[in-house]
Amino acid sequence: MTNMPVVALVGNKGGSGKTTLCVNLASALSAAAPTIVLDADPQRSSLQWRNMAEREDAVPVLDAVDDTAAAIRKSRNEYQYVVIDCPPSVHAEQTGHVLAMCDLALIPVQPSPLDIWATVHIEDKVEEARRKNPNLRAVLVINQLESRTRLSRIIRQALAELSLPAAETAIRRRVAYRSSVLEGRAVTDLGSRGAEAANEISQLIDEVVRA
Asked: Into how many domains does the chain fold?
């Protein structure tokens, strides 16, 4: 399997769970290889999470808002995995730099019409980025899935109408994700409380990051 060193979490609206997925993916990857998070979102939520981290050896987070491209160039030479938390807009300057330089863009999509509609604009930006970065892979990730709701049941059918592929692994709405981030931890730090969530993150990594 081939490692993909630069992984971006891309969204086009707030509240998609982008930062939560970012820090949990990075934390899981860091258990196997040197990993860093670049926070390119002006809200700097990943940095806030790192500042609250209880573990001194938690995955490092670097402020990459002001010079995103330089931070990517430097980090990809020093770490096996670089995970980037992008702004919640595909029109942000930072997102443009990231899409032009990353290997894999993961796009968390909640089971809601607004999230699906916002994703259409990401498709356009991915195609634009591929002119400079032809090897860019982009994958939709169903996030905060609630299997008993009607919207969650039809989300895959809706995503099939889009040009970007969707990961088979879906991230469910779990208390473990919310509580771990509030505590400055990852679901992999929660033991049995976070076991199911940690398994989802591991499955997603195996499916799309290490594929």
From this structure: 1
Residue 81 has φ and ψ, to the nearest 5°, of -125, 130
CB 121 within 8 A of CB 162: no
Residue 1 lies in a domain: no
The Cα–Cα gap between 115 and 11 comes to: 9
- pLDDT (tens digit, 9 = 90+) per residue, 128-186? 999 999 999 999 999 988 777 666 567 878 788 888 999 999 999 999 998 898 888 99
> Is the pLDDT reported for residue 1 higher than 60?
no
| pLDDT score of 4 | 59
In terms of C-beta density within 10 A (0-12 exposed, 13-18 middle, 19 or more buried), how is residue 161 classed? Answer: exposed
Residue ranges making up the domain that contains 190: 6-209
What are the angstrom distances between the C-alpha of 115 and each of 14, 47, 98, 198?
A: 9, 25, 21, 24
Q: What CATH number is associated with residue 203?
A: 3.40.50.300
Write the CA distances from 204 to 99, 119, 168, 198, integer angstroms.
20, 20, 8, 10
Backbone angles phi, psi at 21, to 5 degrees: -65, -40
